[in-house]
Structures are given as C-alpha cells and as structure tokens.
C-alpha cells in the first residue's frame, strides 16, 4: 500500500459525476465532513460516460475557491483513484434497470465493487476507511471487503445513517422534540425495506421513547401499534416514498448522511447506526455487513454490545439478517464475493 500523505486528506468519491456526488463534493470541500482545520485532496472516479459531469463539478469547485481544497483529480482508472487514498466514498453503482432481477443487480454491482475493493487493497493508504453508499450497499461493501484481503475488514462500512436520521425525523414529529433531544436509536440489518429501526433503547430528553410515546398516544398498546404500523414501515420504506414523490431517489439527504457517517467515525461519537462487518455480535453471522448501533472513538466504528433484545426485536432483526445472508449467497452462487 502507498504511504499516507500527511499534508492533506485524500478522499476518493466514486460516481462523482452523479447526483449524490454533486451534493457531496461542495460540502466536503467546504470542510463540513472533516472540519475547518483539515485540507482535502479530492479524487473523482467515474466511468467514461460520467467523466464530463465530474469535470463540470470540478470546474465549479475551482470557482468556489474553497480554502481547504488542495487538489482535484478526475479519472476512470480505479488504481489511480485510490492511490494513497485515506477515505473512500463508494457512491457509483449500477441502478436497477427494467426487467432486472435482484440477482442481476447484485451481479452487475459485484463487477464494480469487486475491482474497486481490489484497487483499494493495492493502492490505498494504510489508514484507509471506506463507506459504501451505492446500492445494494451492505452487500457491495461485503464484496469490496472480500476483494481487499490485506485491508482489515473493519475499515469497510456501508451507509445506514440515512435510515437512522429518517428515524430521528419521524420521532421528532411524533414527540414534538428536536433532533438533539433523541438519543440511542438503532438501525439493525440491511439498508432495505427489511431493516429494523429500533426505539427499544432510545430516549427523548433522557426519558425512554416508549414511555413518552405511551403518554402521548394513550398507553403502551397504542404506542406499540404506532411503532409497528406507522414508524417502522415509514422509515424502512422512506427510500421508496422519496422516489415516488420526487421522481428519483434521495440525493441531498443521502449525501448529508454520508458526510455525517464519515464525520462521526473520524471525530468520535457515543451512539449512531452504521453497517459494519459483523464479528458475530448479536448472533449476526461473521463477515456479513450488517447495521448495528455503533460508537467511535475516532478510529473506526465499533458495535455497541450488551443491549437487551426482546423477542419482538429479535424476530425483526433475524428477518433482515436473513435477507443479507440471501444476498451474500446469491453473489457467491455467481462465483463472486
Ligand atoms: P446517479 O445515477 O445520479 O449517479 C451514479 C454515478 O455513478 C453516475 O454518474 C455513474 O456514471 C457512476 N458510476 C456507475 N458505475 C461506476 C463505476 N463503476 N465507477 C465509478 N462511477 C460509476 O445515482 P445517485 O443518485 O448519485 O445514487 C448513487 C447510488 O447511491 C445508487 O446506487 C443509489 O441507489 C444509492 N443510494 C444509497 C443510499 C443509502 O442510504 N445507502 C441513499 C440514496 C441512494
Ligand atoms: C434510499 O434509501 O433513499 C436509497 O437507498 C434509494 C432506495 O432505493 O431506497
């Protein structure tokens, strides 16, 4: 692996010519992700058809004259893109096309995330950290991690911070609270409709969320019904709701979540959600990239262990983990991963 450049942090963004890329670049260059004291060098990786859009974004970045932005490089070569890279944000992915089955989507993306993982293994800096945004994010991260056996697996993560933030958004509405009032929410499982947004451990201004909901809605049964029938499906299917209302998938909220994921991983946080490579926590099979409640002390996300899990929660977690197992098995059946 190449040595890390200490003068500026090298950030590689794949799919940089796309929608989320455009929403990410300017905020990263402005210092929203790593802070006002860390200069950044940007590497934009695109496929040939996306290079012009990435070049256009680079022209605009230049026109912003951001004090922290040291250098921009645009390439369609993964090895060049990941050379000496400290932070990789893997956004570019193959979207589901008409008539495409899930297995076709997994295979198409394996053809992207396998080679990119290998290029990260060959060229990135020793301190590389990776977040996968492109869908299916968890299994794409698993493929990238499997293709970089010399990089510690805990450097690979997938984005479920958007789901976490969506859950906070729904609770603030229901409880007439501010986002900062809510703590200890958890997203378990896959970044898909099977995910489990879990309030069992959550508190609002220090009070258990379940008690606050019960008080507002007229009892525990009403609170549980709201969670099962409204909160959980609304959060889990929010991606589809955005697509239906907006006409295309989430962009600014996804970019914001990716920035917060990296920011909190680097700066430290006591509690958020991220998909990380399981080492068997909570019975999740080892090697799966699964969302858990996590913390960071600035050197990577660690699963928050020791939480009590009710039978109801266990069933929801198990069904999302079963989907991750099926995705892993599908790519393995294709000879990938
Ligand atoms: P987009 O189509 O606007 O942009 C994707 C870009 O990726 C395109 O410019 C394309 O040319 C590029 N690309 C494709 N293959 C590539 C490759 N092999 N290497 C480099 N670049 C490549 O899509 P978008 O709206 O920016 O969304 C990107 C991905 O993020 C999608 O898969 C979307 O489903 C996913 N997404 C994930 C979350 C999440 O929370 N995890 C949220 C929203 C969207
Ligand atoms: C999202 O959560 O907004 C994205 O992953 C898009 C999708 O397909 O749900």
TrEMBL record:
Domain Lactate/malate dehydrogenase C-terminal as annotated: residue spans: 160-330
Catalysed reaction, written as an equation: (S)-malate + NAD(+) = oxaloacetate + NADH + H(+)
Positions with a binding annotation for substrate: 96, 102, 135, 166
Recorded superkingdom: Bacteria
Matches recorded under Pfam families: Ldh_1_C, Ldh_1_N
Example GO molecular function: L-malate dehydrogenase (NAD+) activity
EC number in record: 1.1.1.37
InterPro entries: L-lactate/malate_DH, Lactate/malate_DH_C, Lactate/malate_DH_N, Lactate_DH/Glyco_Ohase_4_C, Malate_DH_AS, Malate_DH_type2, NAD(P)-bd_dom_sf
Active site per the UniProt annotation: 191
UniProt keywords, alphabetically: NAD, Oxidoreductase, Tricarboxylic acid cycle
GO biological process: malate metabolic process; tricarboxylic acid cycle
Enzyme kind, highest EC tier: oxidoreductase
Residues annotated as domain Lactate/malate dehydrogenase N-terminal: 11-149
Annotated positions binding NAD(+): 15-21, 109, 116, 133-135
Role according to the record: Catalyzes the reversible oxidation of malate to oxaloacetate.
Family: Belongs to the LDH/MDH superfamily. MDH type 2 family.
Protein name: Malate dehydrogenase
Naturally occurring in which organism (per UniProt): Microbacterium pygmaeum
Gene: mdh
């Amino acid at each position: 692996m190449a040595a890390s450049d200490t003068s500026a942090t090298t950030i590689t963004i794949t799919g940089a010519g796309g929608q989320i890329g455009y929403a990410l670049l300017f905020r990263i260059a402005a210092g929203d992700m790593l802070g006002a004291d860390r200069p950044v060098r940007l590497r934009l990786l695109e496929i040939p058809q996306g290079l012009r859009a990435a070049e256009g974004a680079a022209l605009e970045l230049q026109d912003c004259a951001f004090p922290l932005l040291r250098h921009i490089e645009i390439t369609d070569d993964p090895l060049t893109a990941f050379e000496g890279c400290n932070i990789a944000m893997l956004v570019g992915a193959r979207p589901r096309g008409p008539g495409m089955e899930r297995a076709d989507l997994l295979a198409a993306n394996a053809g992207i995330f396998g080679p990119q993982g290998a290029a990260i293994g060959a060229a990135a800096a020793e301190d590389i950290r990776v977040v996968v945004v492109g869908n299916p994010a968890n299994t794409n991260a698993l493929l990238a991690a499997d293709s970089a056996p010399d990089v510690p697996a805990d450097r690979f993560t997938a984005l479920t911070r958007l789901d976490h933030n969506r859950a906070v958004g729904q609770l603030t509405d229901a409880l007439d609270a501010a986002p900062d009032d809510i703590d200890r929410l958890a997203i378990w499982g896959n970044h898909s409709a099977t995910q489990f947004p879990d309030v069992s451990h959550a508190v609002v201004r220090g009070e258990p969320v379940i008690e606050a909901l019960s008080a507002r809605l007229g009892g525990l049964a009403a609170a549980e019904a709201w969670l099962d029938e409204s909160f959980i499906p609304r959060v889990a299917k929010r991606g589809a709701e955005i697509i239906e209302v907006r006409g295309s998938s989430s962009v600014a909220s996804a970019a914001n979540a990716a920035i917060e994921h990296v920011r909190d991983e680097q700066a430290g946080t006591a509690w958020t959600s991220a998909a990380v490579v399981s080492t068997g926590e909570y019975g999740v099979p080892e090697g799966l990239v699964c969302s858990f409640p996590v913390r960071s002390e600035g050197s990577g996300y660690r699963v928050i262990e020791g939480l009590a899990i009710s039978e109801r929660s266990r069933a929801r977690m198990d069904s999302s983990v079963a989907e991750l197992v099926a995705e892993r098995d599908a790519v393995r059946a294709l000879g990938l991963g």
